[in-house]
Amino acid sequence: MAASWLSGVVFAAYIVAFFGGTVIGGNAYRWNEALPGLYDPSSRLSTGAIGAHFAAGSILVLLGPVQLIGRLRQSIPRLHRWLGRIYVVSAAAAGVGGLAFIVWHGTIGGTLMDVGFGLYGVLMVLSATMSYLHARSRRYHSHRAWAIRLFALTIGSWLYRIEYGAWFLLSRLFSEMAEFSGLFDGMMVFFFYIPNLIVAEFVIRTSQHNRTASADLSASAMFVAASAFIVFVTWMFAANTWGFKIASGLTL
Ligand code: HEM
Known about the structure:
Layout: H1 2-24, H2 44-67, H3 70-75, H4 77-104, H5 111-136, H6 140-173, H7 182-191, H8 194-205, H9 213-251
Helix pairs in contact: 1-2, 1-9, 2-4, 2-6, 4-5, 5-6, 6-8
This protein binds protoporphyrin IX containing FE.
Protoporphyrin IX containing FE (HEM) binds at residues 15, 34-35, 37-38, 53-54, 57-58, 60-61, 94-95, 98-99, 101-102, 107-109, 117, 120-121, 124, 154, 157.
């Protein structure tokens, strides 16, 4: 958990320092160093929409894990409620901003990526809305289920980078995989959030009572292995791209 959150903090620092820093420095055109077409001076609407989605996305990456801390929820429920409101509004803004960018501009990957990312945005707005409405009506069981789905979706944007990082590493190990194949890119437009949603459904349906000691042990082992992997990939990203972009967003 701590490894994932730290990795998310590095990802959020990249978004704030690079995308925010370049706007403050009057160099927003540099967004296109991350992906061509993100900053389009001829379309204020799509540039504004993707910019709002960056700001909202960085809040989501930072707040999500805090909302999951059970002890904090129980001891300071007011804090949980306020952070929850900020989280839900940010999720809606990230989803709507991303969807508006897709409609006005389109993604770099074409129709398949438009569909994959479009569905991602729709599911995020739906989960944020349902989570909020159930909490307002004090239907806490349903609120919990939708909040878990929402969290699973929001970590998708971070997982997308981690999974691409893993693919880069594999490509270096096995030279025959050195090129990004269309198949991998095609799968990835859905793969960064559908498996998370399946795990989320499993978590929602597994109560404390039907957990066994051996299941807990395997879960812990998987958790340690996943944490080590996440730390490694985050370090690779920070050393090769994010670190440089954070520094250049703040200084150039
Ligand atoms: C936690 C939430 C999110 C975060 C942190 C996030 C972050 C980012 C970042 C940093 C980029 C720029 C590319 C890069 O530097 O890697 C990006 C691009 C993009 N995101 Fe998000 N995002 C989030 C949620 C969403 C959602 C819900 C949608 C769905 C509509 C979406 C749609 C897009 C699109 C369409 C692009 C541009 C892709 C292209 O030009 O082809 N994002 N996002």
